[in-house]
UniProtKB/TrEMBL annotation:
This is Sugar phosphate isomerase/epimerase. Residues 20-264 form the Xylose isomerase-like TIM barrel domain. Keywords: Isomerase. It comes from the Bacteria. It holds the Pfam family AP_endonuc_2. GO terms for molecular function: isomerase activity.
Length: 269
């Protein structure tokens, strides 16, 4: 398995710092969710037409890969559906230019439980539409276990309603577990769709969830990695440490060395 971190962990770093630190710390790659304050990745400075070839050369020289481009696309909101499709399509084209295998999208919310089936169908429609667009481009569109789409039952139903070969699942370790689903259940029912992972940890305090450094929370990361190993997964273990959204979290100078040291020990077990 290969090791990456998502750029939410280092929101104040510029691009050159991100790649130089990834190389120095021994990471295999980077997952992009915002660069230098720009969250719409086709507009991010390193990926602009005048810069993209230099960026590709820089990554190659440092022995780094971009494992995934993370969009903000959510398909639960009918009013934002077309906007999400447009962002997804533009990000697919960027991924194709960069040689990045995955983009990430969300189902996100089920606003009305009485209309859950309708929301699931709409999310499946968005995923399928982007999947069809991605076919032949070397890019797979990944639905993340996130928000209300955080358990195997709902996620399985989404995939049952799709057909494209260019779609898959991003297993965020924390979301299903912290909402009461055991990793064995998640893996058993979703393993055929898993293409990528987010490694994240958290703890419950007074009924609320608090994000932590990997290994300091309740998420059984070693157990999940063993499940993946035994199932033949050879993809990425990508740290999602959401300092961009939770500024009180540790600085990247702490979180990024801590993660790679921790996950290498887990992989060696």
């Amino acid at each position: 398995m290969k090791i990456a971190f998502q750029t939410l962990a280092c929101p104040l770093w510029d691009w050159d710092t991100i790649v130089s630190e990834a190389h120095r710390l021994g990471y295999d790659g980077i997952e992009i969710r915002g660069i230098e304050g720009e969250m719409y990745l086709p507009k991010a400075r390193p990926f602009l037409p005048q810069n993209i070839e230099r960026t590709k050369v820089q990554l190659k020289e440092l022995g780094l890969e971009i494992c995934c481009l993370d969009t903000g696309c959510s398909f639960h909101d009918n009013e934002q559906f077309d906007k999400a499709i447009t962002e997804g399509q533009e990000t697919i084209l960027l991924a194709e230019k960069l040689g990045v295998p995955y983009i990430r999208v969300f189902g996100d919310k089920i606003p009305d439980q009485a209309k859950q089936a309708d929301t699931i169908r709409q999310v499946a429609r968005g995923l399928e539409q982007l999947g069809q667009y991605a076919e032949g481009k070397g890019v797979t569109v990944l639905l993340e276990t996130h928000g209300d789409f955080n358990n195997q039952e709902i996620v399985s139903e989404v995939f049952r309603l799709t057909q494209s070969a260019a779609i898959g699942l991003l297993w965020d370790f924390e979301h299903p577990f912290m909402h009461g689903e055991q990793p064995e259940v998640t893996y058993k029912n979703l393993s055929s769709w898993i293409r990528h992972t987010h490694v994240k940890d958290a703890i419950r305090e007074g009924g609320e969830k608090r994000l932590t450094l990997i290994g300091d929370g309740e998420v059984p990361v070693p157990q999940i990695v063993r499940l993946l190993k035994e199932g033949g997964y050879t993809g990425w273990l990508s740290l999602e440490y959401e300092k961009k959204w939770v500024p009180t979290l540790d600085e990247p100078e702490t979180s990024l060395p801590a993660y790679i040291q921790y996950i290498k020990k887990v992989l060696a077990e």
